[in-house]
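Bug report

Summary: C-alpha cells for FadR family transcriptional regulator differ between web form and batch submission.
Environment: batch mode, default settings.
Steps: 1) Submit the sequence below via batch. 2) Compare with the web form result.

Sequence submitted:
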Amino acid sequence: MGAGHGRSKEDAPAYTAVLEWVELRLREGNLVLGQKLPGERALAEEFGISRASVREAIRVLAAMGLVRSGTGSGPQAGAVVVSEPSSALSWALRMHVATKALPMADVVSMRVLLETQSALASVRVADEELRGEVLARVRPYLEIMDDPTIPDALFHDLDARFHVELTTLGGNVVLTTVMRSLRDAVIGYVQESVALLGDWAGLRARLQREHGGIFRAFEEGDALRAAELLREHIEGFHSTVVEHRI
C-alpha cells in the first residue's frame, strides 16, 4: 500500500485515505467480492491514522453497502467486500430519490439522455452478433409482459431489465452502470405512481406497444428511430404520471 498517501489532516478527515485506497483497489480489480480488508491495526499503521479513524472508514463503507463488518475474532470478524461499486451507487441514488433530494424531472431527463445516446452509439459499437445476443435476451421479457395477468411487480422488474439490457448495445459500461442504478432508484416511484392511476391496465398496454416499437427499431438497426421512440416513451410516461399527481 505504501504510507504517506498525501492528504494532510487539514485537507480531509483522516479516514478518507482508507476510502481512497479501497476505491483504487476495487477499480484495479485487486479487491473482490468476498475478500477481507486488512485489520484495523494494519490499516492504522499503514496510513498513520488512529484505529478510530479506520473504524469510521469501515462504517462509511458499510453504509454504502460495499462491505459487511463483523465484530469479535475468528473467521467472521473483520470487514468483507459484499457488493460491487455499482450496487453502492444504486443504494445512494435510491436514498436520494426516496428523500426527494433528486427532482424526478431531472432523473427522467437523465434517463432520456442515457438511453438515447446509448441507442445512437449502438450503430457504431454493436455488431450483428452482439445485437442478436442482446435482443435474444430482451425478447422473452416482452413476451412475458404481454400477459396482462402477470403481477405488476414482475412487469416493472422486466420493464427495468428491458431498458438496461438495451443500453448495453451502446458499449459504454459506465453508462449502463448508471442506467441500472437509476432504474433501481425510481422503481418505488413508478410503483407509487401507477397506484394512483385510474386506468393502469390501459397505460400498461400502451407501454407494451411502445416497448414493441422500440424493440423493432433496434432489431432493424434504426438507431435514430430507436432513440426517438425511447424519448417519447420515457417522457410520455412521466407526463401521464404528473397529470394524475396534480
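Above is the batch result. After comparison, the two runs are identical; trailing whitespace caused the diff. The radius of gyration is 22 Å. The chain has two domains: 16-83, 86-245.
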